[in-house]
Design a protein that fits this description.
This protein is an alpha+beta fold and about 1050 residues long.
Length: about 1050
């Protein structure tokens, strides 16, 4: 009615004008172009050959400019602080675009300066001295999309005094008014608080603004306001634990090299503010960032370590970096923890006790077990608040994982009750402090909440205003108590609260499916493909390196493998591998992936060469799998003869077929597990058998199937002869390429929205059909199809002793805003489908009964998905894809997406991938889907020469898979990791062709736990087991 708050807001704006005394305006700067844009450039030996004046614009894209000035600081002045103010350009709210800079003082990194950090406090020791100020300005990028020049203006720069009393009045008044905005007028605190600030401001004399009289009256007003606030009760019993934070995406709308500079700027700011705010506690996750700083800015790193020792800086978080948890394999997630925890322990004295993953796009059901076996007790995220359809019903709860392991899980709930999206980038506002509690769903269990505050995504972190406002809010009536608290201390106290409460604490049993960003299973397909190939390649190079060490005494290549792993782990960051970064990030990723692949292949070749003896007409076959089954192997004999025969180690003739590319396909019945056997190659008269396949007029007879195609190359019938039933549902077609309009509402590369299915077309333009292979082992049909812009070439393989139908595919992808899927409607009725995930599998509904069901219209699967009845099922395998949807009886695999943002050219070009239809008896366990998918992804590899037949390790339980064989990180013995994938208890015995001298069970960090007298143990459903083994 009286507009009191509006009046006071205007008065506050006037008070703000007198916080600074601008003693030394800086009119111009010497400038120099930083043409190289090198990481960690220093202001040494710079040739300053130009000048920029305040008021001038400067522009560029990814441009670096040096600004320099040397000034004499004024003397100290009672009641003030020396301060600088620098307004040089525009910075995005999350530091996602625009200008940033690093200030060097007398040659040393001092503080980040940007739109959100314009103030720089200087010590009294600078008074009366000449000081060199050098800024390394970065123009920034456009934040995704079309490359755009960024234009900024040098608006203002000065050195002067900060009036501490007026500054105090300003922040106290601002906190008071912001608190009033959050209180209802009926709140008993509202009227006294409004009266207190109004009375205080009535004491300000505005007759001569800026005069001594005016400034003195502001000091009086501050005294009145402070005295009134001290007398008022808090009236808000809830506590907020405040930890400073800056979320730095290791790459996203900027490249890895930019992140290294963002870290330097952000960390310099943190360190500088800690000098004036000793209570300031700061959390930074991601050891990758610390590793960058250690290499690039050792002087900053030394200060960080000092602050860690003093307790102000918390280096935690668990993983090497905040990795995506959908795409990486189980072993990759283990290595994220292993390398992350190892770095934290070795560099800072202790590993993390919590996993800090605020911004990832999904949460594997395997995580609770991985975390608990890596020393993690607590899990924190906020991203799941972005769910499209369903809000998680609790914010503090026990999350039960795939094996039954539970981990305490907590969601940060800022900024407010009515905000669907919660944030990990708090601004220390009254809205957040009240909203944390209003939105929190477990009030009866816990009355202390965590707030992470500081600019983030692109770094930046806490500014001085946030620290000042925290001090004010801590004492402000009507607002929760706001104390600095480390995340470790908060989570420890939360555990104590949960352990001692007599209230119900919810347990969530199942995966934490993120109902958003479903396109990240598919975008930037090459990253997914390279990730999987390198994951599997590293598994091979590690066990072969163990073998080379045992057989030949060759030193295990610890550093080389660690370097390859770190490339892989770095690119598993939650904006790189999901496909949601700018084009330049993927240009860099391709270079890194190529380097990793090349180095790993060289390593494998060296190990193979060391393990085999030269021998003419001998080829060694290497089996990296956990089982022995008949396997098809494509080999390239040195002998170019048209008629060759292949014999196993027992001189038994192996089935063979020469292929059109002059390689040979052979079948071996039982290669040893994690081992090798040598075959012999001999010239021979034509002894090849007759073809097992008969093709005529779009119909094919194989040992397994009767197949029919229509005129556009789609399957119209797949009759399973051995099981006497149709694979495809009646009156449907299989291997149908479906194109959908893909125009999500908000996030192009990230999202697939449910309405994509409203506009569907099929690719039916069949250009050619050709029979390329027809022999005793394999029949291959080549088909070429096209859409309006893209072309699909496919080689469809059938085998004489395998039910797998393999679709080797090449797509020249030129479409935009389109989604490509392949569909198989199958004659299987089941309300749930099974999907391969890390260290196991998960069942998801095939119906849309509830919003929780249809929210999963696109889900993630690794090497396979399966739809089975009790006695029959169909699996769809793949070698590099992750997006599946199975509704009713239709199984679909998402092949390609065509996003236009943030990379306008995303996924354009040639893609090569393979998927397989795999009908089987029984469910996916009876049908050995897991084994078939592994064999598609990690085929038998070969080397010339011979070796004695051997097996490094074998396990007796058919439902146990060996995930890793490597040297222990400390060099003491070898590590064997395995997991159960059927969801059953069982006994396991592992054996080796070497003598096992000792066995010690350890956790995922390779910390010893229990000695085993024998290599026999019991394993629980989906349990991960890790053993340290010594062999002789």
């Amino acid at each position: 009615m009286f507009f009191t708050k509006d009046k006071l807001r205007g008065r506050l704006d006037e008070v703000a004008l007198y916080r600074y005394e601008k003693t030394y305006p800086i009119r111009n700067f010497q400038t120099a172009e930083d043409m190289d844009g090198e990481i960690a450039a220093r202001p040494d030996n710079i040739l300053y050959d130009n000048e920029l004046t305040i008021g001038e614009n400067w522009s560029g894209r990814d441009r670096y400019v040096w600004l320099k000035t040397t000034i004499t600081f004024p003397d100290t002045k009672t009641g003030t602080r020396l301060i600088g103010y620098f307004d040089f350009g525009n910075t995005g709210d999350g530091h996602n675009s625009g200008f940033e800079s690093l200030l060097f003082v007398n040659g040393e990194p001092y503080q980040g300066v940007d739109q959100n950090h314009r103030e720089v406090l200087f010590p009294d020791s600078f008074a009366g001295k000449k000081v060199e100020l050098v800024f390394r300005l970065w123009s920034g990028l456009e934040g995704g999309g079309t490359p755009t020049i960024q234009t900024h203006q040098l608006k203002e720069a000065f050195i002067g005094y900060l009036n501490l009393v007026i500054d105090d009045l300003y922040f106290t008044s601002k906190a008071t008014l912001k608190t009033l905005d959050q209180l209802e007028e009926k709140n008993p605190t509202y009227a006294p608080l409004l009266q207190a600030i109004n009375r205080a401001y009535l004491a300000i004399d505005w007759s001569t603004p800026g005069s001594e009289q005016n400034l003195a009256s502001m000091a009086t007003a501050n005294q009145i306001l402070q005295a009134a606030l001290e007398k008022m009760p808090k009236n808000f019993p809830i506590k907020v634990a405040a930890v400073g934070h800056t979320h730095i995406d290791v790459a996203w709308l900027w490249r890895l090299k930019h992140t290294r500079e963002k870290a330097a700027r952000s960390f310099s700011t943190v360190l500088h503010l800690m000098e004036d705010y000793p209570e300031y506690l700061f959390l930074q996750s991601q050891p990758q960032l610390y590793a960058y700083i250690k290499e690039d800015y050792p002087e900053i790193y030394a200060k960080i370590k000092a602050k860690i020792s003093e307790g102000n800086w918390e280096a935690d978080g668990g993983m090497w970096l905040e990795a995506d948890c959908n795409i990486p394999s189980g072993e990759s997630l283990v290595r994220q923890m292993l390398y992350g925890q190892k770095f934290l322990r070795e560099e800072f004295g202790k590993p993390s006790s919590f996993l800090w993953l605020p911004d990832v796009f999904g949460y594997s059901w395997a995580l609770p077990q991985i975390l608990r076996k890596s020393g993690i007790k607590t899990f924190m995220t906020t991203k799941i608040s972005w769910n499209q359809y369903n809000r998680m019903p609790h914010d503090t709860f026990q999350w039960r994982g795939i094996d039954g392991t539970e981990i305490l899980t907590h969601f940060i709930t800022a900024p407010e009750k009515n905000s669907r999206i919660s944030t990990y980038n708090g601004k220390m506002t009254a809205r957040e402090l009240v909203g944390l509690w209003d939105k929190y769903q477990d009030k009866e269990v816990n009355q202390e909440l965590l707030l992470a505050y500081g600019y983030g995504d692109g770094g930046g972190g806490v500014n001085r205003e946030m620290l000042e406002m925290r001090r004010r809010y801590d004492a402000m009536p009507g607002i929760p108590e706001v104390k600095p608290k480390s995340a470790t201390a908060y989570f420890n106290d939360l555990h104590e609260t949960i352990n001692t409460t007599d209230q119900y604490v919810h347990t969530w049993n199942g995966e934490l499916y993120f109902e958003y960003h479903r396109g990240t299973y598919t975008s930037q397909a090459f990253t997914k493909k390279m990730n999987r190939k390198i994951e599997l390649g590293l598994r091979n190079s590690e066990w072969l390196s163990v073998l080379a060490n045992l057989k030949q005494g060759i030193t295990y290549p610890t550093e080389k493998l660690a370097g390859i792993w770190q490339i892989l782990l770095r690119n598993q960051f939650h904006d790189i591998i999901p496909g949601s970064s700018i084009k330049e990030v993927y240009d860099d990723a391709l270079i890194e992936y190529t380097e990793a692949m090349t180095e790993n292949n060289v390593l494998i070749s060296k190990q193979l060469a060391s393990l085999t003896r030269a021998a003419e007409e001998k080829i060694t076959l290497w089996n990296s799998s956990t089982w022995t089954r008949p396997r098809y192997i494509e080999i390239s004999p040195e002998n170019p003869a048209d008629h060759l025969a292949f014999y196993d180690e027992n001189n038994i003739l192996l089935p063979a077929q020469k292929l059109v590319n002059n390689t040979w396909l052979i079948q071996h019945p039982n290669l040893p597990v994690l081992g090798a056997a040598t075959i012999s190659v001999k010239e021979t008269p034509n002894i090849l058998g007759q073809s097992s396949f008969n093709y005529n007029n779009k119909q094919l007879e194989t040992p397994f199937y009767q197949i029919k195609w229509n005129e556009v190359g789609q399957f119209t019938s797949i009759f399973d002869k051995k099981n006497n039933r149709q694979v495809l549902a009646e009156n449907t077609r299989g291997n149908v390429f479906q194109l959908f309009e893909d125009k999500p509402m908000w996030h192009d590369a990230w999202d697939i929205d449910l309405f994509y299915q409203e506009k569907q077309n099929e690719i039916t333009a069949l250009d050619s059909v050709e029979i390329t292979e027809k022999g005793p082992l394999q029949f291959t049909m080549k088909q070429v199809l096209h859409s309006e812009k893209s072309q699909i070439t496919q080689w469809i393989h059938f085998y004489h002793e395998s039910p797998e139908i393999r679709f080797e595919t090449e797509v020249d992808w030129r479409d935009r805003n389109q989604l490509l899927k392949v569909a198989f409607p199958v004659d299987v009725h089941a309300s749930e489908a099974s999907y391969d995930i890390q260290f196991g599998n998960v069942k998801r509904p095939t119906h849309w009964n509830t919003s929780w069901d249809y929210a999963r219209f696109e889900t993630v699967g690794h090497q396979w998905a399966d739809l089975s009845e009790k006695n029959y099922g169909v699996s769809l395998l793949n070698d590099s894809k992750y997006g599946y949807d199975i509704k009713d009886s239709t199984i679909r695999l998402t092949l390609l997406k065509a996003a236009g943002y943030p990379d306008p050219d995303a996924d354009l070009g040639i893609h090569q991938f393979t998927y397989s239809l795999y009908p089987h008896q029984g469910d996916f366990l009876d049908g050995e889907t897991v084994q078939a998918a592994w064999e598609l992804n990690n085929p038998i590899f070969t080397s010339n020469g011979e070796i004695e037949t051997f097996s490094l390790f074998q396990v007796t339980n058919p439902y146990v898979m060996i995930d890793s064989v490597k040297q222990a990180e400390d060099g003491n013995g070898f590590i064997l990791r395995l997991h159960e994938f059927a969801g059953t208890h069982g006994e396991v015995t592992f054996n080796s062709d070497y003598t096992i001298t000792s066995i010690t069970e350890c956790n995922l960090l390779e910390e010893n736990e229990t000695s085993l007298p024998t290599p026999t143990f019991t394993i629980a459903p989906f349990e991960i087991k890790t053993y340290r083994i010594h062999l002789a």
